[in-house]
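Please fill in the sequence for the structure shown.

STRUCTURE ENCODING:
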């Protein structure tokens, strides 16, 4: 064979291989469009999410922590646990007793609609199932959540006298505070447990203002006509107010 013939034979072979490779590629490409997986080839596994396996209350606790509720609220994350958070909004102790499911859900979505001027921001961005979990979690904030059988230690700050504290203690019963608030083993479960009220981080000025118009410390603007679960004690004398604050701040 001549040199030229060898050359053209190699060229023809090369051409054939190239055409073959391209054809195979093209067919597999077309197949990828036509091919639809059958039921057997992709077994359906149920989606495994650790979040989905928790109870609704446990999920609510995670949402509560992730959403940053304790940046404004004092709360016990679990029953009997320590109180954590910052005292900007109301103490959430017993909040599940004083608020029903509908109020809680609507309030997360638009706090200002229920409490005009509220300093609380909206959580409408949370998915509906996370809002439901948050509602279920908040409903577990009842008297059972508070540490059982604890009596307060009375530690009187230097700015108050023993007489003031005793007068405050008497007023706490005669003014009906005890109907809503528990101290030690006695009292009602509507308002926060006050066994350690002196450790909640409230100043004396805050306490006075809160007693005279409780909602005023939580909203910007007027409070008239807005329903609030603690009544105003704006008919008390300055002395009585001071005595109540002395008692509250001594509860440690
Ligand atoms: C920027 C501060 C702020 C943040 C963050 C915040 N809150 Fe509030 N919250 C408030 C204030 C202020 C009030 C009182 C006014 C009102 O009711 O809207 C309040 C009221 C409440 C009440 C009613 C309490 C009562 O005594 O009846 C509940 C329940 C509540 N918040 C739950 C939550 C939850 C749950 C979160 C997190 C998803 C949260 N808050 C985040 C400030 C805040
Ligand atoms: C009808 C029920 C009710 C009565 C009566 C009542 N409270 Fe309250 N109290 C509440 C509720 C609900 C809250 C939570 C909302 C808030 O902080 O205003 C609260 C909150 C408080 C707080 C704030 C606790 C904290 O650390 O956040 C103090 C202190 C307090 N009350 C003291 C008193 C005193 C003192 C009296 C009597 C002069 C009194 N309360 C009467 C329902 C009541």
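FILLED IN BY: designer on duty
SEQUENCE:
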């Amino acid at each position: 064979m001549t040199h030229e013939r060898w050359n053209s034979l190699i060229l023809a072979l090369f051409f054939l291989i190239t055409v073959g490779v391209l054809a195979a590629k093209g067919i597999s490409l077309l197949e990828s469009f036509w091919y639809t997986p059958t039921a057997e080839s992709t077994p359906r596994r149920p989606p495994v999410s650790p979040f989905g396996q928790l109870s609704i209350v446990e999920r609510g606790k995670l949402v509560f922590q992730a959403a940053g509720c304790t940046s404004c609220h004092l709360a016990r994350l679990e029953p009997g646990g320590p109180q954590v958070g910052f005292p900007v909004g109301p103490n959430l102790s017993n909040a599940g007793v004083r608020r029903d499911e509908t109020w809680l859900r609507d309030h997360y979505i638009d706090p200002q609609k229920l409490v005009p001027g509220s300093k609380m921001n909206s959580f409408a961005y949370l998915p509906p199932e996370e809002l439901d979990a948050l509602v279920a979690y908040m409903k577990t904030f009842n008297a059972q959540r508070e540490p059982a059988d604890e009596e307060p230690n009375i530690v009187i700050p230097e700015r108050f006298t023993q007489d003031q504290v005793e007068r405050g203690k008497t007023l706490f019963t005669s003014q009906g505070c005890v109907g809503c608030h528990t101290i030690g083993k006695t009292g009602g479960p509507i308002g926060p447990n006050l066994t350690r009220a002196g450790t909640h981080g409230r100043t004396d000025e805050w306490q006075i203002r809160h007693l005279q118009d409780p909602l005023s410390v939580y909203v910007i603007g007027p409070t008239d006509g807005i329903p609030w679960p603690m009544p105003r004690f704006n008919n008390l004398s300055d002395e009585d107010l001071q005595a109540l604050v002395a008692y509250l701040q001594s509860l440690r």
